[in-house]
Amino acid sequence: MWWRSASFIRDRQNQNPNPNPKPSSLLHSALDDPPSPTSTSMAALNPNPNPNPISAYYQTRAEHHAVVTSDWLAQSVEAAAGDVAASVGAAAGASKAEGGGVGVIEEFNYWRKKPDLAEAVAAIMALGAVIRSSEATTMNELDIELKKASNNLKSWDTTSISLSAACDLFIRYVTRTSALEYEDFDAAKRRLIERAEKFGEISLKARKTIAMLSQDFISDGCTILVHGYSRVVLEVLKMAASDKKLFRVLCTEGRPDRTGLRFSKELAALGIPVKLLIDSAVAYAMDEVDMVFVGADGVVESGGIINMMGTYQVALVAHSMNKPVYVAAESFKFARLYPLDQKDLEPALRPIEFGVPIPSGVEVETSARDYTPPQYLTLLFTDLGVLTPSVVSDELIQLYV
Amino acid sequence: MDLRRPNRPVIGPKVRQVGFITPDSGSATASTSIPAVAAAATAAGSPPSSLSPVMIPPPRHPSTEMSNPHYHPIGSYNPSEQILGSPPALSPSRSSRFDADGSDFGGDDDESVALSGVGGGMTPKSSLLMRQPVTKTAPPVSETTKRDSNVSKGKAAGPSAAPKEKLTRAERRAAQEAQRAAKAAAKEAAAAGGAPSVSKQPKPATKPTNQQKKDGASGSGPLQPLAPSGSIEKKQGKKEVAAPHPRMQFDDMTKVGKLKKRAVVNQSEARNRVELFRHLPQYEHGTQLPDLESKFFQLDPIHPSVYQVGLQFLSDKISGGNARCIAMLLAFKEVIQDYTTPPEKTLTRDLGAKVGSCVSFLIECRPLSVSMGNAIRFLKNRISSLPHNLSDKEAKSRLQSDIDRFINEKIIIASKAIVEHGVSKIRDGDVLLTYGSPSVVESIFAYAHGIKKNFRVVVVDSRPKHEGQGLLRRLVERGIHCTYTHINAVSYVMHEVTRVFLGASSVLSNGTVYSRVGTACVAMVAHAFRVPVLVCCEAYKFHERVQLDSICSNELGDPDAISKVSGRKDLNYLDGWAQNENLQLLNLKYDATPSDYVSVLVTEQGMLPPTSVPVIIREYGIERLWT
């Protein structure tokens, strides 16, 4: 049956006699179907199947940013921990290759516990450990093992862009060398380990590099608008403050998890003058802003970014007032995705508390992030240098094709 | 995230240097260029937070690397030099890569000279070089075009010649002012003396500026010798970097006369052509076919298969970029099959010339498309790179398998890859719009329908070719729900569309999409309605030329096709008016869509923004194929 326009999807949802708690599940039903009995076999492979519609992406963010809004988080962490334990038990009896897959998760969790480490860097470190501890005897075996480990990591959180991007980039970078074919296995493996360590080190240093590169863009007396909590942006501002630069920061509130509040707290501790705005005051405050600084969850092939909900509207307002929008993002966030519009993403859902009970029959948009097209971005500060959005694709082509 | 592109071994490390990195200039400069404080800081291995933002990181060098093991340079994911075991001074830097590219382009120019010897060549030309012959040797050109070309020449010459000029801008301007003043004075004197008619007044007014522009162009010396006359160019060695050949301009009467003498196909030109498009060939349709058929047994040098393909082009039996390219390559395959090297000649040279004559015959039948130009360039490359010690048989079989591989990898497999990428952007419930009858888009729709995606198609069509009807028929036969409309209604249907899929004849390096006329209109309407526009195009259709409008390079169709409406006998207002001098009919075949209106290019290399075309050309162009 055909409807007049694409909005029939929404219409059909509204007419759905069995109200679904997840609004976009019709579009992406495969993604967030509740775990059915048939998927129990999957659970052994995937140590973190989401028992609730809240994405692992959001859980990790919440953990890192110490934002706890309700007990849903504790529950989901418990569920995830229980699953990991179960899968460890299951894997103990399974084959050796399976053991490698679980090892990577343990390693990953070890690195993830470090407070200042991005999840993607933890994944890179964990993959490096896989190569080091591998018992493979041929290049091919090692390759398969690595792929398996990276798939394991990716399935840990299917919605995290930087995690899957970092895994892919690691494999591309580490195994991409023609010299490998001409050596014996041990030398080749040593080379791989060396490169893995180098990649890990580059990723660890990325934030410092970005902070250094972006100092030229922050001048005395400027006003910077930031949106969301980004550790890269914090590093940039921290370095600028330690250089005795005088600037002012406007922080958005970052509803519903109040990331802006936490960000402003950190900035205030550094002695930077901060003003807090509610999210809807962006346009009001834009005329006194000199530049907009945002982080990114992922940088996609078009050169646009995927970031916390609200970035798109901040960028739109800034663009219409001719203010530059700068994005600080490490290069391991470059992902081979090409969203055409906002709905063309894997949704990452999050809980939203309104403080008052939501009237029955009212839907809530719970997406946690949006896509900002490249034409609204001015420059990207990455550890590869200061790039225009179109260079992102250039880099990705050189690495992947 | 899935790997959308096939894995390919990457041969060498690519060093990308960004940020504050100074060029590799050896250890001597390195030790002096680093500020002593920073060097001390890095040597002590202090945490990077103490790095001052103005510090210039030392160049990559083994000695400095060893002295501070904690230091890591900013850079792309490059395999580091010490890992690959080669000294950094020898590592291919970005600049050396550009050098390699430069020589590649030089070789490419050679090819194109041979290719476009007769006309309608496909190589990139600066507008200056295109225009120069016109202004020099074209007495019958009308005043307006002359002025126009002069203006463009002046504009083009200005910036490119600027660095070579000894005069400063101010001095030049002063000279021009003086000239202008002198002219004005002369004019006034003439006006005082004689009695000029009023109608002639505008002419002297424009003349001085013309003169100045010309002076400016001739003053910019270094460009002058570049304007090639045919004989000089032929004398130049093949290996030398020849000046680019000017594209054939059909408003140049002497050139056209020469061309006619050589031409196999006897064509009479249409009389009333639109002013702006006089540089493009336009022939009266329907006259060539019987003439060619009568010549069939006299045409000795043209191979029958090429002849057949040429006739099919002429009568529009084969149309569409891929179909024409495949037909041409298959014909060339037969030419190679039947080829025997004449005595005292070498295969590489003689076969190249033979293919060249076939190409010029095809050009006479219909101008080449960019995709065909690229395919010919590839074939000529292969012919000229054949080793000399090969026997005829081996060489021929090698060339034939090369052609097969080209068709297979660059066209057939590529379109399959495009289909996979394109389908990933079709969601259930989408309304997809397409224009004309692009073959790749058709297979995307067919495949998406095959995997049970739930979508609807709007086929937009236009006069006079009605290509969309064929597409519509095939889609409806498959059971896809379709809407058919003409381009006049595109703004009406656009509001319900969620994706626009378009094909392309070629994609140029500034991202401009050169495609069937009307495509630009559809893309602009889609952009205005904020509907994503996906252009599906194989990478072998990419070209390094830059084009800003649809005027410089285009193809003119039969003007009768737009003056007559089939099936409407009563609409006869234009009958017999084609010879009227006041009536000019314009039937353009292509137009250029600016890259702003294109959301994504779907190629076999993946989905790319239109800004990435030069990257693909640079990394995986035709020249880089199997070298």
From TrEMBL, chain A:
GO terms for molecular function: guanyl-nucleotide exchange factor activity; translation initiation factor activity. Gene3D superfamilies: Translation initiation factor eif-2b, domain 2, Translation initiation factor eIF-2B, N-terminal domain. Residues 1-54 are annotated as: Disordered. Keywords: Cytoplasm, Initiation factor, Protein biosynthesis. The keyword Cytoplasm applies. Its main location: cytoplasm. Belongs to the eIF-2B alpha/beta/delta subunits family. Component of the translation initiation factor 2B (eIF2B) complex which is a heterodecamer of two sets of five different subunits: alpha, beta, gamma, delta and epsilon. Subunits alpha, beta and delta comprise a regulatory subcomplex and subunits epsilon and gamma comprise a catalytic subcomplex. Within the complex, the hexameric regulatory complex resides at the center, with the two heterodimeric catalytic subcomplexes bound on opposite sides. This is Translation initiation factor eIF2B subunit alpha. It comes from Rhynchospora tenuis.
UniProtKB/TrEMBL annotation, chain B:
Belongs to the eIF-2B alpha/beta/delta subunits family. This is Translation initiation factor eIF2B subunit delta. Residues 1-254 are annotated as: Disordered. GO terms for cellular component: cytosol. GO terms for molecular function: translation initiation factor activity. It is found in: Cytoplasm, Cytosol. Its main location: cytoplasm. Residues 163-175, 232-254 have a biased composition (Basic and acidic residues). Residues 27-53, 86-95, 152-162, 176-195 have a biased composition (Low complexity). Keywords: Cytoplasm, Initiation factor, Protein biosynthesis. InterPro entries: IF-2B-related, IF_2B-like_C, NagB/RpiA_transferase-like. It comes from the Eukaryota. Component of the translation initiation factor 2B (eIF2B) complex which is a heterodecamer of two sets of five different subunits: alpha, beta, gamma, delta and epsilon. Subunits alpha, beta and delta comprise a regulatory subcomplex and subunits epsilon and gamma comprise a catalytic subcomplex. Within the complex, the hexameric regulatory complex resides at the center, with the two heterodimeric catalytic subcomplexes bound on opposite sides.
